[in-house]
From TrEMBL:
Residue ranges of the region described as Disordered: 210-229
The keyword ATP-binding appears for this protein: yes
Domain of life, source organism: Eukaryota
Protein name: Uncharacterized protein
GO terms, molecular function: ATP binding; ATP-dependent protein folding chaperone
Gene3D superfamilies referenced in this protein's UniProt entry, alphabetically: 3.30.420.40, Actin, Chain A, domain 4 (3.90.640.10)
InterPro entries attached to this UniProt entry: ATPase_NBD (IPR043129), Hsp_70_fam (IPR013126)
Source organism phylogeny: Eukaryota, Sar, Stramenopiles, Ochrophyta, Raphidophyceae
Keywords for the protein's UniProt record, in alphabetical order: ATP-binding, Nucleotide-binding
Length: 229
């Protein structure tokens, strides 16, 4: 302030002493939340730590003690910004997507599952119906039946669809590979990445998972846009 840079070092022990009275309140909130949804700590598989306070070793130890059978994960990126980021997404949703939505209503969700068709025409969901938006997911598949073979290359066609029942076609991704690579004994695999934003539509990328694929062949990319409400 006014060109003055003030720094006040505080030891971990001193800081934990200052906030010590607040930690039991946090434990009480967790217990109340579990009681409200009629669950016990042993029924929780995964605990995601978010918020700046969760970077404190003492808080992490408390959570680990409360959920000894659960997997404990720290929120990616900057945990101290998670709450603010969530509030920002909610504000964006309310102001741009559904201006008549009341505060407290749920985030936008995917109305129909989005996925691919397997060789038998069955639907394999990647982004499932009802998942919160924005959303993303990966899927690894086996490339067993080339759709075409011309010259020195073969092509694998992947049909992207929407809806487990209607299977509405959204687009096709084609991965190409040299015949010499496709002729190996090992089964070729491809990795698909689905990403769906609030307004940007659906983007699907695909690449071969095997190290034999060249750099050019590992980056085929196609964007498919769908409308969702």
């Amino acid at each position: 302030m006014d060109g003055l840079d003030l720094r006040l070092p505080v030891s971990r022990a001193r800081f934990e002493d200052l906030v010590g009275d607040l930690l039991p309140e946090g434990v009480m909130c967790i217990n109340e939340a579990l009681a409200e949804i009629e669950l016990v700590p042993a029924s929780i598989d995964l605990v995601l730590l978010s918020g700046g306070v969760t970077s404190m070793p003492r808080v992490q130890n408390i959570i680990q003690h409360m959920f000894p059978q659960s997997r404990i994960l720290q929120a990616p990126g900057k945990p101290e910004e998670v709450v603010a980021l969530g509030a920002t997404w909610q504000a964006f949703h309310l102001s741009n997507q559904h201006p008549d939505t009341e505060i407290g209503e749920e985030f936008p969700v995917l109305p129909e599952s989005v996925g691919i068709l397997n060789a038998e025409g069955g639907f394999i969901p990647v982004l499932t119906k009802g998942c919160f938006l924005p959303a993303s997911a990966d899927l690894e598949i086996a490339c067993t039946q080339p759709s075409e073979a011309e010259g020195t290359s073969v092509a694998y066609q992947i049909q992207v669809c929407e809806g487990e029942e209607l299977k509405t076609p959204l687009g096709v991704i084609i991965l190409r590979q040299s015949k010499s690579q496709a002729g190996t004994d090992s089964e070729e695999k491809a990795v698909l990445h689905f990403s769906l934003g609030l307004t940007s539509g659906l983007e699907v990328t695909a690449h071969f998972a095997s190290p034999s694929a060249s750099a050019d062949e590992s980056q085929p990319k196609e964007k498919i846009h769908i409308h969702h409400s």
